[in-house]
């Protein structure tokens, strides 16, 4: 399995949409073949269309707000005493997380295809919140599928979704988290694909959704590249990009523009959710060597039992609480371009305490997983190494959990 | 290749009626009970679809999901499903069995091993909901080598060109999804429209049997009786759920329902 240079990773899949010949694909009911093919044709055309790209960039600039900040975490760096720790504050984006990029692009595509309704899934509630924002902006009706357990633990985002005029559909099946929300959303699309567009909230799902999402979030690394050159005059000799990985949309977007650099220069570190310290359940299929299987239309490493039933996951961060992982990350893992590890719930909380103690930054529990590993590893590096952590979400949504686990003084 | 599914269609045609296909979930609500249900409905149904429960089903509505979750919760395993089929097909009056499910279950079991086992216990056909054409091309060939039909799904969204290609690669039986819906949705298209779509498919290769499924209930079955076969699934799964809720015997209730369905198409 080989990563090609000079070709976007999203375009390195084969004719049937498999990366490395085995990750991804389109394991979908026959009914969805046509809408997926239509979307593929539209996306392949528009991603080469200069006018469409200009339109996207205009919305990214004037509405999403680009570029998001790239800041040095001076105090944290001093405290750690190793590598320089920087952060790309993607939570600056309109709505407070990277999910806005994919949501915006899906709404633009839906408009082009003449669809009036858009449906989407959400875990932490960000994908749903952003999709509801974008749908409102572009005049589309919006339905958001969300696990009942996530509705309970991510109330601020649920309120935001409703405020934007979208309908929140609680999903009670299975573990009542993201995995079931995605299934229910796909089922809704099966039954309504003639009038409705679907937005998959991460770089998961049938191949075209993986590609659209990766194409959208790549805005993050496009900005970062410019910011790095502004700051250092060139891409640093030793650059390490840390990002949490759930479905994998923010990390893929954070890395994409640096794909062709040697990994000795630009190393990618993906941090999965290890779950509670003493629990056997986790949401880290790459770290813990889960077997390849099929989930939501794509072949990927996925937590499952020996029979092929998808296993429930457990993580403090709803956004990472997903048993599978993007085919793009399976591909990056097996081609050894990226390295993957996991942080536990407790470790993420510790990172939250540390970051908020030293910096004016409040990363949500998802990026706190990445902060934990970044801080741990930065200690052993010298000051010429540039560590960048993608702070891809804001902790506002985690208020309830933070109060419960850390007490009021941390919120 | 010889396949008992062909005989089932021939028999129904002789009686000038569509074949009646039922769908129940293996292990719903227990391993033994689902076997007893199969035995009880054998008298009225022509072909029995047996669902392999999966916990992330992307094409099933709430009724079948409920049945599948119930079966999984009660611990049903792949080996149990093969056991059910083996026990059932040993009956003299058994009808052809089609296993229906999602690809991950087959993928984890291993395609070759799965097909060998199917052959051994007497499975006649397979429906793999999320392995569409052309992704299923190689699996289709492997099925053929074992004389097992891989039944292709056709949908109202399937283009004419695609229909032609799928039917060309298909075995002697195909499955037309009546409307845009997950299983068990309300019939939101008129039976006349469904039949007109069906006839278009039938015309491509009249020799191949086409069954219609999704949204068929006691109410609507009669209006579609010109088809080669009709599948009732969610209505049966619902009957099981309701019986359990009311502490009634699902076996007799389901058998009665299938009997009624049969009477509607005679």
Mean pLDDT of chain B: 96
The arrangement of helices and strands of chain B along the chain is HEHEHHEHHEHEEHEHEEHH
The total count of strands of chain A amounts to: 14
| Beta-strand content of chain B | 15-25%
Characterize the quaternary organization of these chains: heterodimer
Reading off the top of the CATH hierarchy, the class of the largest domain in chain A is best stated as: Alpha Beta
Secondary-structure arrangement, i.e. CATH architecture of chain B: Alpha-Beta Barrel
Task: List its traits.
heterodimer; A: 411 residues; alpha/beta; Rossmann fold; 2 domains; six-stranded mixed β-sheet; four-stranded parallel β-sheet; globular; B: 266 residues; TIM Barrel; nine-stranded parallel β-sheet; 9 strands
Polypeptide structure, described:
The complex is a heterodimer of chains A (411) and B (266). Chain A is α/β, with parallel strands linked by helices and 411 residues long. Chain A has two domains: 28-59 and 99-214, Rossmann fold (3-Layer(aba) Sandwich); 66-96 and 218-410, Rossmann fold (3-Layer(aba) Sandwich), CATH 3.40.50.1100. Helices cover 42% and strands 18% of the residues of chain A. Chain A has 15 helices and 14 strands. In chain A, the strands form four sheets. Chain A has a six-stranded mixed beta sheet, with helices on both faces. A four-stranded parallel beta sheet of chain A has the order 7-6-5-8, sandwiched between helices. In chain A, helix 9 (207-217) packs across helix 11 and helix 13 crosses helix 14 (365-378). The mean pLDDT of chain A is 96. Helix content of chain B is 47%, strand content 16%. Chain B has helices at 4-14, 31-41, 62-73, 78-89, 103-109, 111-121, 137-145, 160-169, 191-204, 234-245, 250-265; strands at 19-25, 47-51, 97-101, 123-128, 149-150, 152-154, 173-177, 209-213, 229-232. Chain B has one domain: TIM Barrel, CATH 3.20.20.70. With 266 residues, chain B is of the alpha/beta class. The longest helix of chain B has 16 residues, at 250-265. Chain B has a nine-stranded parallel beta sheet. The model of chain B has no long low-confidence stretch (mean pLDDT 96). Chain B contains eleven helices and nine strands. The two termini of chain B are 29 Å apart. The interface between A and B is large, with 36 and 41 residues.
């Amino acid at each position: 399995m080989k990563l090609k240079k000079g070709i976007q990773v999203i375009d390195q899949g084969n004719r049937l949409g498999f990366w490395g010949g085995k990750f991804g694909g389109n394991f979908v009911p026959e009914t969805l073949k046509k809408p997926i093919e239509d979307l593929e044709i539209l996306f392949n055309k528009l991603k080469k269309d200069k006018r469409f790209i200009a339109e996207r960039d205009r919305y990214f600039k004037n509405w999403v707000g680009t570029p998001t900040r790239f800041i040095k975490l001076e105090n944290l760096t001093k405290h750690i005493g190793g590598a320089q720790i920087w952060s790309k504050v993607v939570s600056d984006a309109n709505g407070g997380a990277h999910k806005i990029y994919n949501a915006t692009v899906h709404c633009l595509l839906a408009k082009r295809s003449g669809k009036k309704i858009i449906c989407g899934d959400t875990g932490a509630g960000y994908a749903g919140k952003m999709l509801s924002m974008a749908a409102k902006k572009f005049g589309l009706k919006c339905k958001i599928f969300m696990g009942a357990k996530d509705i309970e633990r991510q109330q601020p985002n649920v309120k935001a979704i409703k405020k934007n005029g979208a309908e929140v559909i609680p999903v009670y099946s299975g573990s009542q988290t993201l995995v079931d929300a995605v299934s229910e959303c796909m089922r809704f699309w099966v039954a309504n694909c003639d009038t409705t567009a679907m937005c998959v909230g991460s770089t998961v799902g049938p191949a075209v959704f993986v590609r659209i999402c990766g194409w959208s979030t790549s805005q993050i690394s496009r900005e970062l590249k410019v910011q790095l050159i502004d700051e250092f005059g060139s891409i640093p000799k030793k650059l390490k990009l840390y990002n949490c990985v759930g479905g994998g949309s923010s990390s893929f977007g954070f890395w994409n523009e640096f794909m062709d650099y040697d990994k000795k220069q630009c190393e990618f570190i993906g941090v999965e959710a290890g779950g509670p310290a003493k629990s056997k359940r986790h949401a880290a299929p790459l770290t813990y060597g889960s077997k390849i299987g099929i989930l939501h239309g794509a072949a990927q490493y996925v937590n499952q039992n020996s029979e092929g039933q998808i296993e429930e996951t457990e993580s403090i961060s709803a956004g990472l609480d997903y048993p599978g992982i993007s085919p793009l990350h399976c591909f990056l893992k097996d081609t050894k371009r990226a390295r993957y590890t996991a942080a536990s719930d407790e470790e993420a909380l510790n990172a939250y305490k540390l970051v908020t103690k030293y910096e004016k930054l409040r990363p949500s529990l998802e990026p706190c997983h990445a902060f934990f590993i970044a801080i741990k590893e930065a200690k052993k590096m010298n000051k010429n190494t540039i560590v960048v952590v993608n702070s891809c979400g804001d902790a506002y949504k985690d208020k309830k959990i933070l109060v419960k686990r850390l007490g009021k003084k941390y919120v | 290749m010889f396949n008992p599914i062909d005989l089932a269609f021939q028999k129904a045609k002789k009686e000038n009626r569509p074949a009646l296909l039922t769908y129940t979930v293996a292990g719903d609500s227990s391993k033994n009970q689902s076997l007893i249900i199969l035995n009880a409905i054998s008298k009225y149904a022509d072909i029995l679809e047996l669902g392999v429960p999966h916990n992330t089903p992307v094409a099933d509505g709430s009724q079948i999901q409920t049945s599948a979750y119930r079966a999984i919760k009660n611990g049903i395993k792949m080996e149990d499903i093969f056991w059910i089929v083996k026990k059932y097909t040993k009956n003299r009056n058994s009808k052809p069995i089609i296993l229906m499910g999602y690809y991950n279950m087959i993928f984890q079991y291993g395609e070759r091993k799965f097909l060998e086992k199917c052959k051994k216990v007497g499975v006649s056909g397979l429906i793999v909901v999320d392995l569409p054409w052309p992704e299923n091309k190689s699996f289709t060939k492997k099925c053929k080598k074992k004389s097992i039909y891989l039944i292709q799904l056709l949908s109202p969204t399937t283009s004419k060109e695609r229909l032609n290609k799928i039917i060309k690669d298909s075995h002697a039986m195909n499955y037309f999804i009546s409307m845009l819906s997950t299983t068990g949705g309300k019939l939101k298209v008129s039976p006349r429209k469904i039949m007109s779509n069906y006839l278009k498919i039938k015309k491509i290769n009249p020799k191949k049997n086409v069954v219609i499924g999704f949204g068929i209930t006691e109410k609507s079955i009669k209006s579609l009786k010109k088809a080669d076969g009709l599948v009732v699934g969610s209505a049966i799964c619902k009957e099981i759920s309701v019986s359990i809720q009311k502490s009634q015997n699902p076996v007799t209730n389901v058998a009665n329902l299938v009997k009624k369905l049969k009477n509607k198409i005679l």
